[in-house]
Amino acid sequence: MSIKTVVIASANPVKVNAALGGLQRMFPDVQFKTEPVSVPSDVADQPMTDAETLEGATNRVQNAFVSFPHADYWVGIEGGVAVIQNELAAFAWVVVKSKELQGKARSGTFFLPRAVSELVEQGIELGTADDMVFNHSNSKQKGGAIGILTGDVLDRKELYEQAVVLALVPFRNEKLYAEKSANGN
């Protein structure tokens, strides 16, 4: 069994476990050694658009790569929100990088209740807003908003893990994606 080193651009255990879970699901014959690191996203603490959230995940991967260049993979996960049809929706972007390829995917999206949305729109980070509205503590390192709202039927780790799997599609189909890059398409 080969061993691959993965730098996860966060010390948040939910993000670390989601990255590891997605990698293990896609590559069950590989053993992964994770190295969680805190690196800046270079966007707002609470990204407020789809583009800003993707930029945050991309920046995390790049900052992790520059700081820790001796790994096999780098994973960045950034949670964000965006207004869709006058409602605030929550989601995350995942970016996975190797020296040869990059994959990216967005998680499922769900809409936040008005009480949470109002706090986020006032500049409060989603995790803090969840804690305030639902009387929780440090929910962003646990089940997150989705865990609270679904009664843990789906939690933040599962939501992010699926996006990690989707971001790994190019790595499972390396020849197809390498050809696409080589042709400039």
TrEMBL record:
Is Transport found in the keyword set?
no
Q: Name one GO molecular function term.
A: hydrolase activity
Q: Name the cofactor(s) required for activity, per the record.
A: Mn(2+); Mg(2+)
Q: Specify whether Hydrolase is a keyword of the entry.
A: yes
UniProtKB keywords: Hydrolase, Magnesium, Manganese, Metal-binding, Nucleotide metabolism, Nucleotide-binding
Residues in domain Non-canonical purine NTP phosphatase/PRRC1?
9-171
EC number, as in UniProt: 3.6.1.73
Q: Top enzyme class of this protein?
A: hydrolase
Give the highest taxon in the source lineage.
Bacteria
Pfam families for the chain: NTPase_I-T
Catalysed reaction(s) here are: XTP + H2O = XDP + phosphate + H(+); ITP + H2O = IDP + phosphate + H(+)
Cite the cofactor comment. Answer: Binds 1 divalent metal cation per subunit; can use either Mg(2+) or Mn(2+).
Entry function: Phosphatase that hydrolyzes non-canonical purine nucleotides such as XTP and ITP to their respective diphosphate derivatives. Probably excludes non-canonical purines from DNA/RNA precursor pool, thus preventing their incorporation into DNA/RNA and avoiding chromosomal lesions.
| NCBIfam families in alphabetical order | inosine/xanthosine triphosphatase, PRK05074.1
Please give the subunit comment from the record: Homodimer.
* Similarity section: Belongs to the YjjX NTPase family.
What protein name is recorded for this chain? Answer: Probable inosine/xanthosine triphosphatase
Supply the source organism for this entry: Pontibacter toksunensis
